[in-house]
Amino acid sequence: MNTARQDIRVGADIGGTFTDIALDLRGRIFSTKVLTNYAAPEQAILDGIEIVTRNAGISASEIGIVIHGTTLATNALIERRGAKTALITTEGFRDVIEMRTENRFEQYDLNLRLPTPLIPREHRYAVKGRIGAEGQELQPLDEVALEEIAEAIAGGGFDAVAIGFIHSYANPSHERRAREILAAKLDLPISISAEVSPQMREFERFNTVCANAYVRPQMADYLARLQTRLKDMGANCPVFMIHSGGGLISVETASEFPVRLVESGPAGGAIFAADIARRFGLNYVVSYDMGGTTAKICLIEDFTPRTARTFEVARTYRFCKGSGMPISIPVIEMIEIGAGGGSIAWVDAMGRIQTGPESAGSEPGPACYGRGGKRPAITDADLVLGKLDPDNFAGGAIRLDMAASKQAIARDVGERLSLEATAAAFGICEVVDENMANAARVHAVENGKNISDNLMIAFGGAAPLHTARLCEKLNIDQCLVPQGAGVGSAIGFLKAPFGYEALASRLTRLSRFDVTEANALLAELRKSAEGFVRAGTDGRILCEVTAFMRYAGQGWEIPVPVPDTHLGSDAGRLLENLFLDNYQRFFGRAIDGLDGLEIEIVTWSVKATDERPVSQQHTLTLGTRSVAPAVMREVFDPATGALQTYAIIERATLQAGDRISGPAVLVERETSTVVTSPFDAVIQSDGSILLVRKGSQA
What we know:
The chain is built from 16 helices and 36 strands. The chain is an alpha/beta fold. The protein has six domains: 5-77 and 220-242, Nucleotidyltransferase, domain 5 (2-Layer Sandwich); 82-211, Rossmann fold; 264-337 and 431-495, Nucleotidyltransferase, domain 5 (2-Layer Sandwich), CATH 3.30.420; 343-429, no CATH class; 499-610, no CATH class; 625-693, no CATH class. α2 (72-79) packs across α7 and α10 packs across α12.
């Protein structure tokens, strides 16, 4: 008998080093971290669920829903471990994914390195047939040639097929017909760009459909395996996936469109931070998520993470837009760098300490894990500096080898730079903290924001170890480390709405705006988005409508929120006024006084989500009750550049209103919060730790 309860939910986040599990038992959170199993990723989820259900005193059969996010699709793209894929495209456009946009993101670099296309040239097939920019058929599809291509693919040992035709976003008939012809001859998953990414700009659209096809067999197999093994352990409940835009979709949808999972784990973290921002009424927040492999920075304004329609993975140049593989799907916008606890530290040819992007992961892990890793990672540096207790890491589940860390750091970094192990470890941490600070500054500047105006919310297993130092570098006076910070993304999954964003590009100048056509398109998008959401909920669905608009002749557009109502006869004037208001908000002024400068709509979007319960409200407090520590430990303090005596306090022993004067380390099972000497820590009413800079006006 299925005894599952809908009020018992599990969030599972597979990361590069740890798999995080969070169980919500009617408002009580039970969590754990398990080393990620690369050979069988689902095994870590099962092991974690077994731990949290045992701790909660329930059986797996009582779980009502499992919400899952994973980096598997991202890693498959970065590491090129996807399926052998064929691309079928319009004649004359075979090399679009290799020519890219011909933009030189490093203008004067004569040795510019671009990502290698996912699909090599010999696996790309061109076929006659042409759709015009307004959706009209200019040349019929060559169905005979498609039959011959199908035979070539059948004999070529391919695992998946991607179809991307010119202007299919305006008229998908050729792509759909091509899929019919191929499906009749091939027993392979076939992805078409009109469904994966129905947006303008052929390079981004073609690359996205290629990425979807490339990871589709692997992800479909994994998700089917996960469902089967969950049922075998008694968890006979629905499984939903969190997508890159921060909403939940069914496993069936995720299996068909796995490219939407590329940023699923980080999206959960942004939702986690946004919920905390709403809980405390914080309008300007920067979230800082540092796990075992990467660090992510996201700006959150008015309790909502910034979003985008395109992002890049596998950049060949750090922080350089255009150097990566573009994916044109709705995504929570953040900047991500290879700086996690497992990131490898090394010295380059110029004698500079570098960290990442290579990570030790969970296999073999940092040198201190004792699992065969010999190269120093950031976790090794944190251990040598005294931030971690070697006998109480992960609640004592993993004993850390201090000698191994010192040996690895001294050999690979210290000897190269004539530094002893502690100084080399400090150098490693300073480099990674400065890299993260630079990433945060760049992300804020690109969005026209001042990073120091924000309160930071830090989570992930490694973030609380580094957040105080990061705040020092960014001149941020306050930082919240919430309860469950070590498994923040997994908890964020539990708070995510069922949601889906449907998009369609229709280039339309306002001077030729057809309100009937626009209403018909929006109705189609609304039906599509609500259909995906309705698969997971019977509750009330909310819709947000956005028009992406620009001045005619501009290369990029801005998002313009539009009322979710039937557009009337005055819609053209309404859209113009909304565009001018938003343009002025983005850039400080609108362009006026130029005769003939028209405004155009490029893409329409309808985002549907189910209504979420309102979070319990809290107020930040500065606390007055001092806490006397019982345990002290020598920790290297970056603010003073020397070892200092830090108070070591178990977080579970602290109560709301307690104030701990830095330097101190607040220890919990899944992470530790380092309070450097310039900061104090105050326990909030919900159990969060507020780091407050001493002498600030906060």
